[in-house]
Amino acid sequence: MALAGYGAKVEGIPAVEAALMAGRVRKLRVENRSAASPRMAVLLDSARGRGVEVEMVRSLGGMAVTSSPQGVLAECRQLRAVTLTQLANETAPSALVVVDHVSDPRNLGAIARSAVAAGTPRLVIPRRRGSPLTPTAFKAAAGALERTRVCLVSSIAQTLHQLSTMSIWTIGLAADAPTSLLGLELLKEPAALVVGTEHQGLSRLVAQRVDQLASIPMVGEAESLNASVAAGLALFELARVRGYLGKT
């Protein structure tokens, strides 16, 4: 079975710039009123120089998915998902992020952005019961999804079993876990960070199947952290423990 594709439509200047640099933009639609801005002018020059078709329109209303496409919409060749084995073998020790049914595409995009910034641009995302890789996710990622490797899976619980057979530890983020993520020794081993939904955290079955539940200590009183914030903090702790930070 062929691997799924995603990212056929991209909106927002940073996301479109990144797709253009990746060489996958087929056509641009640009609002007339936005064309005169310096950044858009550069984008248009770059697109025309690459032979990309450009259509000027009065408005993107009715065409755009996001509420604020920043005056530009790109039709693109799709990015291709990769296999779990490919993700696991891309670095030693393995490091990836498993997204357990995060429903807000803005959070999904923000997680991708943090993953790239922290040096772990590898995501596992469910095909169903979660946020798809929509134009909203690409806009929130601000170009990071062009540099992120994505594996689309049918079952997160089954994926955790597969990771176990690959000798990859799974670490689930849970606000009430007694073990702190900070300085966790497992982060030095082949590991997958597992992030749950915005409101309920990890699903029951996923929480039961991860190897370790870990929390992010908080000083102030708060019920929990936003899913993308928690993922970002966990990713940078992984980077700190492994010595990624400061490397070029």
How is this structure best summarized?
The protein is α/β, with parallel strands linked by helices and 248 residues long. The protein is built from 8 helices and 12 strands.
List keywords for this structure.
about 250 residues, 6-stranded parallel sheet, 4-stranded mixed sheet, 8 helices, 12 strands, about 20% strand
State mean pLDDT (0 to 100 scale).
93
Assign an overall shape.
elongated
What does the main sheet amount to? 6 strands, parallel
Structure class: alpha/beta
SS element count, helices: 8
What is the end-to-end distance?
37 Å
Global Rg: 19 Å
Q: List the secondary-structure elements in sequence, H or E.
A: EEHEHEEEHEHEHEHEEHEH
Helix content percent band = 25-40%
Strand content: 15-25%
- Uncertain runs are none
| Strand adjacency order, main sheet | 9-8-7-11-10-12
The number of E-state strands comes to 12
Can you walk me through this structure?
By secondary structure, this protein is of the alpha/beta class. The protein has eight helices and twelve strands. Strands 9-8-7-11-10-12 form a six-stranded parallel sheet, with helices on both faces. The longest helix is centred in the last third of the chain and has 16 residues. It is elongated and about 55 Å long. The two termini are 37 Å apart. The relative contact order is 0.16.
Provide the fold topology:
Blueprint: E1 5-6, E2 9-11, H1 13-21, E3 25-31, H2 38-49, E4 53-57, E5 72-76, E6 79-80, H3 84-88, E7 95-99, H4 105-117, E8 122-126, H5 135-141, E9 149-153, H6 156-165, E10 169-173, E11 191-195, H7 204-209, E12 212-214, H8 227-242
Parallel strand pairs: 3-4, 7-8, 7-11, 8-9, 10-11, 10-12
Antiparallel strand pairs: 1-6, 2-5, 3-5
